[in-house]
Amino acid sequence: MQLSELLKMKELYGFTCEHIAEISGVPLSTVQKFFAGVTKVPRQDTIKALSAAFERVRAESGSSYTSGNPAGPGAGCVTESGPLYGMTKGTSAFKPEKSGRTLEDYLALPNDVRVELIDGVFYDMASPTLVHQRIAFEIAKAFDSHIVSNKGSCVVFIAPADVQLDRDDKTVVQPDVFVVCDRSKMTRPRVVGAPDLIVEILSPANGLRYMVKKLLKYKKAGVREYWIIDPEEMCVYVYLFEKNDLPAEYTFDDKVPVGIWDGKCAVDFKDIYGRIEFLL
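The structure assignment produced for this chain is given below.
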């Protein structure tokens, strides 16, 4: 890979120099000088190690999507082969802070400060849009209705609610909507462990590349199903990690089946679109 491509990929992934050093084996000081442009003529072995690390991430992440200008619900959903991190849509208001943060630091934050803690790094979270909130509410309502009507033991949560994803003190996330079926994971302050289903909704406050950054975290932690919803392009990407690394793609004209319940519950996005269309 060329230097310009590595710089572009670092920005696209949202990786810190600390994380790049960890996954590549290149010393942190070397990584910092490389991406700051201090090193004018980088060593070839450094470039090879960084290239190999990014290629591994791309290979693990699956497929990619690009977006067009939709003429109606889902018209902009376009699938193409290639790395999932090829998705570039989204402006992302998330700003990573310094690494080494812990659950103790997270709990010490003021109540009016909303961040997520991922691998020891704080990421600022802006307030969601009204569209974002309404979609989350409608999805949570559909999930909860299914659980109640079937006398199920699963529980639906909606942000802000903390998930100590890896059961350690380095990661606490707040998915937009999530379902937990193992009640032993539920404590009074937070969920400890991976939810069964997570839904994340795109908005100007959370760029697509940040949502995709969570993909590997969720998969590795044991999340069974992960939805990424793009209200602007009216697309829904559904990952069923137990069956396939590639997502199924739906539009806002579809009823999207819930994999963890074997499709017995389906969210009618055409109905949701009808409820939020005035906000779009």
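Interim note for the steering committee: The radius of gyration is 19 Å. Helices lie at 3-13, 17-24, 28-36, 44-61, 103-107, 130-149, 208-221, 269-276.
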